């Protein structure tokens, strides 16, 4: 005779193919959970309880490795196949035919702009590149050697105080203004941070130049009346901007969505993205690549370095990706632009070390068996190095184009009918019902020993 569970399960299969039947072996009860888009709703697990008074079952997914946190129509990635598309258009086509500002429009509006739309968009962004003079005062308050990413983080957040109207997050005009301002001013703030760090005077934006040309001008202009960037460098930078414009629900984008879900203004939400990008496992990877290359020091030292990676004493920075498990398509595209940059710039020994390191790692079973291939940051780091941009600036430059993605994702999140303030759950592992012990009655050592007890038991 079949037991109760088997009967329910059989009926379920007969009734619906778009459901998942879950049997709780603690109780023998079965539950039919709807499947939509190959997912189940985590909230549907809540009904699974042993006792009526129980909280109900949750999904445990630290780092969200298998949890969809939103519906999105902005960026499609197939990590196994090495596909990246924005609004359905392959990244290869965008890099070949488009410009960063056009891609930014595509991300934000969902369609490629018509010619007049692109002209207006470009005009609006180009004419909002100046920052309030008080921002310069604010920047001056930083130490001479302040990390430019820390400066960018602070100044992007500070923009919210200059534009209090942006708190009306549902107002379409305010949204447009914030979008234009952020896309226009982040390069200026980035370049000012660099010049501060170098002890050089700030260079004001040049509105005759394209987006990437203007950025190069703000970085490198010295006494010349007009800065004229090498077109190969400006194009390579524009392609790097396109490649970094969005990458679906990565750490910084999730940070923007999470923080933005509280309905805070977009400057503050984007500042959260900048903070997340600062970390060496995310945007800081290309900076870490250069530090690694410097540590290696010469081509002869590469085998010893790779041995230390295999012994887990080191990480091969710029290799591996959480999503791309075959090849990062962005790496393929930028590799083809790297040669042009190396031609247009002076010989750099680190470029040689990087090229040899890549070759050897791709020939090594340790890396191939783990599907560890160069990611976009491996090449972007070397390109920036060839441009003589210091490593501290790499993540700052990553933040410029990613601002477009953050804004597109922030708007999509804000308009999502499923939107609620982000509030994950936890599995509480700590002590309960402890009594407070008065100070004089406590026992233990006199000195603070070791790190705080952070690990859950
Ligand atoms: N060097 C050496 N070993 C590595 C590396 C690496 N860079 N990346 C992964 N592994 C090993 C890892 O130790 C593990 O080995 P085992 O199975 O023997 O324990 C295996 O490969 C799988 O790694 P994982 O940690 O499960 O992979 P993950 O998906 O959690 O991590 C990653 C992805 C990007 C954090 C990691 O590959 C990494 O730290 N790479 C270096 C940092 C880097 O370049 N980050 C930039 C990512 S691209 C920019 C962006 O899109 O944000």
Helical content (DSSP H or I, runs of 4+): 40-55%
Question: What is the H/E string?
Answer: HEEEEEHHHHHHHHHHHHHHHHH
Question: Which kinds of small molecule does this entry bind, naming each only once?
Answer: carboxymethyl coenzyme *A
Which whole number gives the mean pLDDT? 93
Coarse shape: globular
CATH topology term of the largest domain: Citrate Synthase, domain 1
Structural class: mainly alpha
Helix count equals: 18
Strand elements, count = 5
Indicate the multimeric state.
single chain
Q: Tell me, what is the CATH class of the largest domain?
A: Mainly Alpha
Strand order of the largest sheet: 3-4-5
- Name the poorly predicted regions: 1-14
Secondary-structure arrangement, i.e. CATH architecture of the largest domain: Orthogonal Bundle
Q: Compute the gyration radius: what is it? A: 26 Å
Largest sheet: 3 strands, antiparallel
N- to C-terminal distance: 44 Å
Can you give a write-up of this model?
- The structure is a single chain.
- The chain is mostly helical and 457 residues long.
- 49% of the residues lie in helices and 5% in strands.
- It folds into 2 domains: 4-64, no CATH class; 69-417, Citrate Synthase, domain 1 (Orthogonal Bundle).
- The strands form 2 sheets. A 3-stranded antiparallel sheet has the order 3-4-5.
- Helix 3 (100-109) runs parallel beside helix 18, helix 8 packs across helix 9 (231-243) and helix 9 (231-243) packs antiparallel against helix 14 (329-344).
- Bound molecules: carboxymethyl coenzyme *A.
């Amino acid at each position: 005779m079949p037991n109760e569970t088997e009967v329910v399960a059989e009926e379920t299969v007969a009734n619906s193919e778009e459901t998942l039947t879950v049997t709780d072996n603690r109780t023998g009860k079965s539950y039919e959970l709807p499947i939509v888009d190959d997912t189940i709703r985590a909230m549907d697990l809540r009904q699974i309880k042993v006792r009526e008074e129980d909280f109900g079952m949750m999904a445990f997914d630290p780092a969200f490795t298998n949890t969809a946190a939103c519906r999105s129509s902005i960026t499609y990635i197939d990590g196994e196949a090495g596909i990246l598309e924005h609004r359905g258009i392959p990244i290869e086509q965008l890099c070949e035919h488009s410009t960063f500002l056009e891609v930014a429009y595509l991300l934000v509006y969902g369609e490629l702009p018509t010619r007049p739309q692109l002209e207006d968009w470009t005009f609006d962004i180009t004419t909002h590149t100046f920052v309030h003079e008080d921002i310069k005062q604010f920047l001056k308050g930083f130490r001479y050697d302040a990390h430019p990413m820390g400066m960018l983080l602070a100044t992007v957040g500070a923009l919210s105080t200059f534009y209090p109207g942006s708190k009306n997050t549902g107002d379409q005009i305010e949204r447009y203004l914030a979008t234009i301002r952020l896309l226009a001013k982040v390069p200026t703030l980035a370049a000012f941070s660099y010049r501060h760090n170098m002890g050089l005077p700030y260079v004001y934006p040049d509105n005759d130049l394209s987006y990437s040309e203007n950025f190069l001008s703000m970085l490198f202009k010295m006494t010349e009346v007009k800065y004229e960037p090498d077109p190969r460098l400006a194009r390579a930078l524009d392609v790097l901007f396109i490649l970094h414009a969005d990458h679906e629900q990565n750490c910084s984008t999730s940070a923007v969505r999470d923080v933005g879900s509280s309905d805070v203004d977009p400057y503050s939400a984007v500042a959260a993205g900048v903070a997340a990008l600062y970390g060496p496992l995310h945007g800081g990877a290309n900076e870490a690549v250069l530090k690694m290359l410097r540590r290696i020091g010469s081509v002869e030292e590469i085998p010893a370095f790779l041995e230390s990676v295999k012994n887990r004493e080191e990480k091969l920075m710029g290799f591996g990706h959480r999503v791309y498990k075959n090849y990062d398509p962005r790496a393929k595209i930028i590799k083809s632009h790297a040669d042009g940059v190396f031609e247009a710039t002076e010989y750099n020994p680190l470029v040689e070390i990087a090229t040899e390191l890549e070759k050897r790692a791709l020939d090594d079973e340790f890396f191939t068996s783990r599907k560890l291939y160069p990611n976009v940051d491996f090449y972007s780091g070397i390109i920036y190095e060839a441009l003589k941009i210091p490593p501290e600036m790499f993540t700052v430059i990553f933040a410029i184009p990613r601002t477009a993605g953050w804004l597109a994702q922030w708007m999509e999140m804000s308009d999502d009918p499923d939107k609620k303030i982000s509030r994950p759950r936890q599995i509480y592992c700590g002590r309960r019902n402890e009594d407070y012990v008065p100070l004089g009655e406590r026992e233990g050592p006199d000195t603070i020993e070791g790190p705080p007890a952070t690990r859950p038991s």
